Every structure is written in C-alpha cells, then in structure tokens.
Amino acid sequence: MKRKFASLFAGFVMLAAMVFALSAGITPAKAETTYQIGTDVTFPPFEFANKHDKYVGIDIELLKAIAKDQGFKVNIKPTSFNGAVQAVQSGQLDGMIAGMSITKEREATFDFSKPYFTSGVVMAVTPNSKTTSLKDLRGKKVAVKTGTSGADYAKSIQKKYGFHIVTFDESNDMYQDVITGNSAACFEDSPVMRYAVRQGTKLKIVTKPVENGPYGFAVKKGHNQKLLRMFNKGLADMKANGEYARITRKYLGAKGSSDTSSDRTFWGLIKQNRSALLGGFEETVWLTIVAIFFATVFGVIVGLLGVVPNKFFNGLSTTLIYIFRGLPLLVLALFIYTGIPSLTNQKIPAFVAGTITLMFNEGAYIAAFVKGGINAVNIGQMEAARSLGLPFGKAMRRVILPQGIRIMIPSFINQFIITLKDTSILSIIGILELTQTGKIIIARNLEGFKVWTIIAVIYLVVITLLTWLSNWVQRRVRL
Length: 479
Hints:
Elements: H1 2-24, E1 34-40, E2 48-49, E3 55-56, H2 58-70, E4 73-79, H3 81-90, E5 95-96, H4 104-107, E6 110-112, E7 117-125, E8 141-145, H5 149-161, E9 164-168, H6 171-179, E10 185-189, H7 190-198, E11 204-205, E12 210-215, E13 218-220, H8 225-241, H9 243-252, H10 266-272, H11 274-305, H12 311-326, H13 329-344, H14 350-375, H15 379-387, H16 392-422, H17 434-445, H18 448-478
Parallel strand pairs: 1-4, 1-5, 8-9, 8-10
Antiparallel strand pairs: 2-3, 6-13, 7-10, 7-11, 7-12
C-alpha cells in the first residue's frame, strides 16, 4: 500500500515539476535585436487593428519607423492598458507604448522617453443632452476609462463639481454608458474622442481640451536603457525628416484614418472580420483543449490523493482544492503572468500562463468531482474487494474506478464547457482568444452591440453542441 501512496505522490511531484519547468525554463528577458512591446490596441487613433487585422495607429507606426531607423525589431503584444503596465513592471515585456501620459506617480516605477505627443482632455455628452459644462455635472455620474488622462482629470475635479465617477476598461463601454443615459458625460483624450465621433459614435464634444499632458514610451525603471535611448534618437530623426508629421497627419488630419466601411450590418461585420473571428475562435478552442488535458491530469491526481487512506495526502488534496477553487480566475491569471516573473525574473509566455491558470483552477473542480465520484460508489464495494484479498490499489483500479468513471463522465464534459467559457477571462493577459478579438474589432468600428452579439452567438452555438454531446453521453452511460 505504501508503494501505491509513493507512486501517487511521485506523480504529483512530477506534475509540479513540469509546471515549474514551463515557467522557469523560459529564456530571461534579454532581447538583443527584437523587443517585446506591449500596447492597448483599443485606443484609436493611437493603436488599433484595421480591417485587414494589422495593428496600426500613431503609436504603432511611429514605433515601427523608429525601430527601422535605429536598426532594431519590435514584436507588438496586444493587451489591455493595465495588463501592459503590469507586464512591463514584472519584466514580461521590454516596454509599452499606449498613449501613456507621463505623470510623477508613473515616473516612480517607469522610465519614460521624451514626449512624442501632447494631448488634452475633453468632455463628451449625447447630442441632445442639457449638460454643456462642468457645473452641470453636480450629482450626476461621469464615465472614464481606467488608466487614462481623462480618468486622472475627473478625479482631480470630482470634489469641486460634485459628480460620481464610473470606471470602465474599454472606451466603447464608456461611450455606451453615456449613450444609454447611465452617465451624463465622459472624459476622454481629445484625439481619441474626435476619432470616435468621426466613426459615428452618437456623442458630441462640449468642452475645449484641458490638462494637456505628454505621452511617452515607457520601460521598467532602471531597465532597457539602450532601448529608451534608441527611441529618443529615432524620435528626433522622425521629427527632423518629416516622418513624424506625416504619421500624425495621417490619423489626425481633417479626414483622418478610420474604418470607412459602409456595411455595418451583422453580416457585413462578419464578412469584414471573418479571419479575425476565426483566428480568435481557433485560439479559444486550442487553449481549451490544452488546458483541459493538463487540468484533467492535475485533477485526477489530486482527486485520488483525496480518497487514499492516508491523512497527509487527504489534507494535501483538500488544501489544493480549497486554494485553487477559492482564487478568482482573473487574480490567478495575473499572479502567474505578472506576479511570478516579478519574483523569478523569468518570462512566461501568455499562452503558457493561461494554460497553467486554467490547469489549476479547472483542475481543482475536476479533483472535487473525482473525489465525489469515487465516494459515491457504495463503500461495500471496496470492503467486498478487500475481503477477497485484493490490495487497495488493485481494488480501486478494478472495482471502484470503473463504477466511479460512469458517474464522472458527464461532469468532465460539463467542465470542458466551463473551461471554454473561462478562456474569455484570459484576454486580460493578452491572449488573442475570441473575447479579446471582439474588443479589438470594436475599437476600430465602435459597433459594440453588434460585435458582442456575434461573439455571443458563436459561444452559444459551440456550447449548445457540447451540451448535446454531454446529454448523449449521459444517456449512453445509463444504458
């Protein structure tokens, strides 16, 4: 029996070692010619994906032009603004360019380039709104986007004008909150708001730009100083040769660069973005399959540890299930993707971090129903097997597990469905699954309702098919 315990424990140790190898075996962030640069690709006209699924915008084109001028390469990593900030702080990324305002607070943790753009904050309301000045905001709600100059400005004048702040992660969500009447106004960087209005967003700007703030390229404080020097040198060259003026004029001119497609119907949006949607769907499915495989291995081992007649292993199983079921998936993802690299100085690719996150979280639930499935088998079955002289391991393998598996199979399929849905949360660390793809599409055309409807239908179709499969399996198991 002790051998069985030892083999189970060895299996668990091997799994833990594999996970550690995935995270610790990644090459440290010492890029020589190619730098990993984070950006928020939902901040047009500075960074967004065009209808050809290419990342464009003032920041993107300027960075690529500087890289070409200075002889280095960049690999753009699309993520949220907050995700990019944390990734740079943890060393996952070498730098970020995302319309990031240079402030004293941020200078405590980042080194900034020389300013490459200066922007002001404006207030926007619905076309028929009676709110036309800051004085009209007293007692009302104001929408802002986290991490922006607009959010900082709103906080600085909140007490003076007596309004309430509502915070969003995406610009389109902020705009929709005003359009639907939940908030009276929103604060946004002037060029970003003007782009949105030009795209057809039903808002109007009612104030002049204020709190003009400089944007800068950022690296972790004390790190990547060579990259910072090359950016500054390249920026000076771009301004001297007229390339900087050409790029800004391209996106901020009278016409500007925008999604001018006339077909904004559901079918038109599907046709225009089918390659992006297909790519996001494929990433979602692939991530789900890989994650559920490792989650099953982890869950079965932890679940079996919970039913062997050994108090230590029982306690270990209970503790692991308690920890990983208790942690919110978002917190676990950020801890693995940004927290661990901060401690180890080792990079973890977003896909690997996402897989490990789902493995622990979903594996904890699998472990729980593995324990439940085994415990659901009548205890007399084990007693009868042992009375016939079968050792514990053989009795478990030959008698208990075949009966327990029949109970567990539907739960395994249901867990696959849950894992598929949980992949959407991993957009926070920049994985280009279906939800992140939707955010990028919306940033370009600001058709939030229609795009999210398309995304929802895709999820529903897949989940419905999996549910039918689960029901079919349950009927077969009962036969």
